[in-house]
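Re: that backbone. Tokens:
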């Protein structure tokens, strides 16, 4: 990264925390607006692809405390507040002082007004670097919420609006990081693959409304994927299969004709077979029968 002043580095961190973009994108956007973070994010929200939606932007910037993090005292205060909040949810403070286990995690999510059936829960756990579905660590909790500028429950509830908005609209941002981290969240201790039943549950959660919808005008991709897995795939799901499926999802949404796909590509065998499955469905009069391949 080029050399930036401490205040510029802080602005980049704030911008990426709100928009889930890369540092290089944040720096370019901030430079274009003389390092005024409010103007930079405001402009980003109006771009064609919409880094953030206007409504979410207004919710985030309504509270000016988000822009006071350059002050070391503010950072220290946020850390202290977050540590105290973390402590209220610990299940075994004596033996595991830096861990919130299953019961505490469920209480915390309930206090945020969340249900485990909401995909935004996976986004929250990703932002907080949760090692598993039922566990939060002190470092991940404190660092994650500091990055999101939300040190108390009220601010954290407000942040949920931005995460809910970003999840379906940022296939290369929040959705991508959440999708990749979900494999780790869902993985049982000591295991290297997900049971197919578990993987399909998370695919359904992540690839349909209110998350990113894997469906295009001519192809019901998620329905086809579930049908293919039920009929053709009897094995577990490896990390490579999980992650490459995520890449396939993004590419199919960008170009449903699959002009990007090649038999010479390094796709897992299951995705090679799935391409044939989709083409066969289209040929039999499926939703995409009129598409030329």
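Recovered sequence:
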């Amino acid at each position: 990264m080029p050399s930036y002043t401490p205040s510029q580095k802080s602005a980049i961190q704030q911008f990426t925390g709100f928009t889930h973009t890369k540092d290089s994108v944040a720096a370019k956007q901030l430079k274009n607006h003389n390092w005024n973070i409010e103007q930079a994010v405001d402009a980003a929200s109006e771009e064609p692809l919409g880094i953030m939606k206007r409504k979410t932007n207004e919710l985030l910037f309504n509270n000016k405390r988000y822009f006071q993090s350059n002050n070391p005292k503010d950072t220290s205060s946020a850390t202290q507040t977050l540590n105290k909040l973390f402590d209220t949810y610990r299940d075994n403070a004596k033996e595991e002082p830096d861990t919130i286990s299953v019961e505490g995690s469920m209480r915390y999510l309930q206090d945020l007004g969340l249900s485990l059936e909401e995909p935004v829960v996976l986004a929250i756990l990703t932002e907080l670097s949760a090692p598993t579905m039922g566990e939060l660590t002190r470092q991940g909790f404190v660092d994650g919420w500091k990055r999101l500028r939300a040190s108390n429950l009220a601010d954290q509830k407000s942040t949920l609006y931005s995460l809910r908005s970003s999840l379906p609209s940022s296939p290369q941002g929040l959705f991508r990081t959440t999708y990749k981290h979900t494999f780790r969240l869902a993985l049982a201790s000591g295991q290297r693959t997900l049971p197919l039943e578990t993987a399909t549950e998370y695919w359904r959660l992540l690839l349909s409304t209110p998350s990113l919808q894997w469906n295009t005008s001519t192809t019901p991709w998620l329905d086809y994927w579930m049908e293919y897995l039920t009929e053709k795939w009897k094995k577990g799901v490896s990390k490579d299969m999980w992650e490459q499926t995520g890449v396939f999802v993004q590419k199919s949404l960008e170009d449903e004709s699959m002009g990007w796909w090649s038999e010479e590509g390094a796709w897992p065998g299951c995705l090679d077979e799935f391409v044939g499955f989709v083409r066969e469905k289209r040929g039999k009069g499926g939703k995409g029968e009129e598409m030329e391949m």
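The first strand starts at residue 99 and ends at 100. The two ends are 43 Å apart (CA to CA).
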